[in-house]
Structure prediction request, 635 residues.
Amino acid sequence: MCRRWMPWVLLAVLLLFSQLALWGSYFAYRTQLASGGQVVFGTGGPGERGEGPVVVNCNDLKAGNTSGLPPDTDPRIVEGLLQQCEQAVPRREEQLENHVDSFVLPGSLSTILGFGQMFGLILLAILAASTVGTEYGWGTVRTVLARGTGRAPYLAGKLALLALVGAAGLVVLAGVTSVSSLVAGALAGVGIESSGWGHAANALGKTWSVLVVYTIVTSFVTVLTRSAAAGMAMGLGYFFAEQIIVAIFSALFDWFPKVADYFLIRNITEWGGGFALQGPGLDGNGGSEIRALLVLAAYTVVSGLMAFWLFRRRDLTSTTGG
Amino acid sequence: MNDLVIETRGLTKWYGRVLAVDGLSLQVPRGGVFGLLGPNGSGKTTTMAMLLGLVRPTSGTMSLLGQDTDGGHDQALRRVGAIVEAPAFYPYLSGRANLLYFQGINGQGKPQEVDRLLEMVGLAVRANSKFATYSLGMKQRLGIAYALLGDPELLFLDEPTNGLDPAGMAEIRELIRGLGGGGRTVLLSSHLLHEVEQVCDQVAILSKGRLIAQGHVQELLRESRHVGVRLKTTDDVGTAAALASLSWVKNVKTENGYLLAGAPPERSWEITAALAQRGIFVAEMAPVQATLESYFLAVTGDDAPASGKEATP
Prediction:
């Protein structure tokens, strides 16, 4: 991919998937609202009465429409189904509230930013590896540094730029999400909620902070290997690899979850509070945000210092004797 | 005021077990074109890379434009233009866009300067084409234009005519000769002897990472202008015997059907007289002029391309 377009392509991917999530919530809300909830009639398989379970909309039953049921259905069964519908009202309303929270401001911001953490980490890691690594591959790092641009300012500039790009991406994501939320809220007839803005702002800050941590770690790997490909492999692969490793080894060894508490992604999850692909948090039963913050700070400082140290010391040449 | 723009003292670089530069002590005076001459692998590029801060010396010290490089020499490098190894630019940007980008990063010069430099190196017509589409020669030209951004005091040009056609080589050499004027110094590395001879005022000859000789090109040639005379006679065997009897004639050998004798050409008449006394007559006789190539081969004692020697640091 042409590097010039890479940030835009990655941003488009992030926006596309985040908006799919938001509008998915909206359509789930509309479907649930229109159906009034659903109940299941008949639990037998195809061998019983020749039919499987039948799903019936509660609103149809309330309107006396039993066309979804077999013709010879006992009225008492219909009555029972209506009772089930009534009993499910509190749960259904809770689900509707959750859906509304996911596509109406400010709840939609928290939801999408949490969702965006997963994609944002991966996408910014790709961008970081590309930004730092291709300079080695193309040799442009020599072109710049041979004219007196110090190594430390050069790398610091790259990292600062990536942090800014991450922040800009989140602002764009929040902006697009806000517009979508206003449209979806208007279509659903639901207004903006007054509470939850603080939580949204907190989510924005935390999402940016975990993006910065992952960017610095990926940049360190890229500087270490002097390879954009290795950096991207780290950015993409480690995210999933850690979760697989934790799942496997935690099942095999009792002590492993204690060790895994210091793994990068688990602490990002704990601190960021966004995506939750890997099940339980720290200690296997919900951990400390503060500890996660300290662990992430340690990753950031160590990776950053190592990256600068290596970048300052390493020879920048493709020749070894010419 | 120190009139040296570059000074190295015992500069050494090991790449693992390969010794690339071996105790190099080099002095480059201000002004003119200074050549670093040596075969591939002789340490020219590594020396330049060390001076530019791209490669850390294993030992030794150096100064650039009067600034010692021990604690970094970014300030001095801001007065330096360089093209080391292959010209490296962003492939998806045009030549002009690349120069503008790097000019912006370095904060050197004005945007109009970019167009002037592109014109100077003969790249104005393709200035808006992507770098990825450039031929090697065009990339070299862009590299030279980049090196000239900001009107630097000192230019490092590493094999700048690589990939150029003969007309382009002549053009760029002419350009480089011009760049060495007005107080600017050009450090030109090349493995092309005739290029250095044509372009450079002074030269340092490197072989296997070591400095073999350094001085003004014409002085080096004058020192080596011993070479002698080439002759064909009616009796080559008798001629060889006659020449061997002359104490001031050295290194008599046969080459391509001619006898080569190490003797001052101004004493040729004494040779003809000696041969005539033996009844041998001269059919052809001509002085042999020294070239940088002959000097280079003489001082390096090696006409094969050298590579870094292997040893233990």
